[in-house]
């Protein structure tokens, strides 16, 4: 798989909802922080406006294919998160 094809699948769709029922959406990307050879902290990086005011959200993550060497295009798993903005 070409590097450009691999990078496409480091992104995640983000869907949000405010307390008043306003829906929002955006994208984020996976990254590791504080990598010192011993500790890795996986994070999803996005723009502030994507999460601003959201009290709940869902990350839609692309699954791996059966062989585990690439994405299973079109197959996603929702990962719900409460208290989203915090």
Written description of the protein model:
This protein is mainly beta. It is 12% helix and 55% strand. The chain has helices spanning 3-8, 48-51; strands spanning 11-18, 23-33, 41-45, 54-64, 71-82. Strands 3-2-1-4-5 form a 5-stranded antiparallel β-sheet. A hairpin with a 4-residue loop joins strand 1 (11-18) and strand 2. The relative contact order is 0.23. The mean pLDDT is 87.
Quick description:
With 86 residues, the protein is mainly beta. Helix content is 12%, strand content 55%.
> Unreliable runs, pLDDT <50, ≥5 residues?
none
Q: Treating each run of at least 4 consecutive H or I residues as one helix, how many helices? A: 2
For the residues shown, what is the average pLDDT? Answer: 87
Structural class: mainly beta
What's the story with the biggest beta sheet? 5 strands, antiparallel
- How many individual β-strands? 5
Rounded to the nearest angstrom, the distance between the terminal CA atoms is: 37 Å
Sum up the overall morphology in one term.
globular
Strand content: over 45%
Share in helix: 10-25%
Secondary-structure element string: HEEEHEE
Query: Mind telling me the C-alpha Rg?
Result: 15 Å
Strand order of the largest sheet: 3-2-1-4-5
